[in-house]
Amino acid sequence: MISGALVALVVALIVLLAVAWTRGGAPLVREGFVHGNGYLLRFGLLVVVSFFLAGFAEVLMPHGWVPRMLGHQAGVRGILVATGAGAITPSGPFVAIPLAALMARSGAGTGALVAYVSAWGLIALHRLVAWEIPILGPRLALLRWGVCAALPIVAGLAARALVRS
């Protein structure tokens, strides 16, 4: 089955290919494909491995754990657990987003899913330690992290309330 996202991406590719052709002809189109191939070689294996990682996480996760710990009935505890999980997920979107999809398929509640993805995006510890503290300095990095720390919980609670109403 072809997804709407795939159709949209193919249409965008065709439009950009046409723009490149009108601006620079075959040489610019060729250059676009060369750059695209470079991205494929650089990130393609990462994407493939991350989906296999998500597949193994799905089959190895204890049956019933996600609904019990992250499901709608888990309440605020589920949002807190998901926030912690998002903060310690050491990866980019190639791993974190498939893991969120796995949690959704396994019975996680909307509030927990929003909290997980928000925590991964806002308060990921690997990014704080590897990038922000060394580049921004500890004062600014820790201030930013501290200010953002409650936001995934607030987002999870808001999502939970919106889904209930």
State the low-pLDDT regions, or none.
none
Number of helices: 8
Instruction: Please give the radius of gyration in angstroms.
Output: 20 Å
Fraction of residues in β-strands: under 5%
Query: How widely separated are the two ends?
Result: 33 Å
SSE topology string: HHHHHHHH
Mean pLDDT: 92
Please state the structural category. Answer: mainly alpha
Quantity of strands, as a count: 0
Largest sheet: none
Domain tally: 2
Q: Which geometry do the CA atoms define?
A: globular
Helix residue percentage? over 70%
Brief overview:
This protein is 85% helix and 0% strand. It has helices at 4-60, 65-70, 75-88, 93-105, 110-123, 125-136, 138-148, 151-164.
Descriptive report:
By secondary structure, this protein is mainly α. The chain has two domains: 1-52; 61-164, no CATH class. The chain has helices at 4-60, 65-70, 75-88, 93-105, 110-123, 125-136, 138-148, 151-164. The longest helix is centred in the N-terminal third of the chain and has 57 residues, at 4-60. The two termini are 33 Å apart.
Write the layout of secondary structure elements.
Blueprint: H1 4-60, H2 65-70, H3 75-88, H4 93-105, H5 110-123, H6 125-136, H7 138-148, H8 151-164
Task: Describe the structure using short key phrases.
0% strand; mainly alpha; 8 helices; 85% helix; 165 residues
